[in-house]
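Field reference: sequence -> structure
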Amino acid sequence: MTTPAPTATATRPGPARVLTPDVVIVGAGPSGLSAAAELATHTSSVLVLERENMAGGIPRHSDHLGYGIRDMRKFVSGPHYARLLRERAAAAGATILTRAMATDWAGERSLNVTTPEGRIRVDARAVVLATGARERPRPARLIPGDRARGIYTTGHLQNLVHLKHRTVGRRAVIVGAELVSWSAVMTLRHVGCATVLMTTTYPRPDSYWAFHGPGRVAFRTKLATRTKLVRIIGRPDVQAVEIENLDTGQRRTVACDTVVLTGDWIPDNELARAAGIPLDPASKSPLVDTAMRTDQPGVFAIGNLLHPVDTADIAALDGAAVARHVRAHLDGYQPASNRVELRAAPPFRWVAPHYLRPGDPAPARNRLLLWTDTYIPTPTVVLRQDGRTVATKRLWWPAAPGRVFRIPSDVLNGIDPYGGAVTIGVRR
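Structure field:
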């Protein structure tokens, strides 16, 4: 059973129409709440805005174990993890305002916010965007077929099951084979729905073997690689789906009454776009330096808004890491104007962070984060700048589709901080 949020999360401003915190954080998921806890310890006023009824983000309705490993050194369920995050932020002195949606900008560091009691304006000295990412729904994936009931994303499914205590069908097909796909399998099993097929376009599962190996046995889930969902059949409810083998073109029909669309993430970047902050053309995330500063002075971006998508505890560590950079901004620190752009070269699709400035720290957790659509067992990473190789590093873990690939940031040591752009690829 989900533990109610602390009283602090229900705190609302009085009749004043303008709030003036030192820092406003947009989004109360793991990254936003972790940033709030760190900042509120050393900053006089920190306000967190959350559009949902309760703070905690996706873990609130991800009711299985596996949360808090890297940031809290715990192994807890999603709702328990969300409660711990809320309690830490509230105990540090942060104000968490729920059912409060930042809709647009009223200035460089000012936001218009809609609440049930009306609109307010928040004028802050620093803004931290922690709006996270979401899975693309069916219309964005351009899946043909009937307009049927019974189609969900993982987040929608878990919200219905764990927060609204609803049921779904009895036979499900899951599109995707990522970590979150197995989270969907566990949620379906919770309400007695069997996963009859998991389909992925990649030649191997996107998740770690520790998940898809035992998971296929424990949940009796069939996995079809190099396949694609090409049609949904049924009115008014889903009755079946049509699956195509990408190598042979052969199609088959799979009977089901539930379809869950997992992965295929896109960051919730609406506020960043509205501010005119440049976005990475591949990930659609705000471009930031290693201190998670955007091009808008005093505006930072963290968590899965930057790397769609990584685990909740990695997003939380982003929040903890950004705190000192926000405090430096409040104290008047001006970063170097010069910066070196980091670019992903094939087979990588995107890299985060995107800029390296002279005198700036290493990125959070001393890692560069990249995404690939190609499986590479033990890649040798190559960095090139101004026509020459500035670093190579052999790594003993694979780069694989469906999950973030991490590179130790010491590969940046050979970069000329006043040189040209750096491309990051692999040795063929």
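Note: The chain is about 20% helix and 30% strand.
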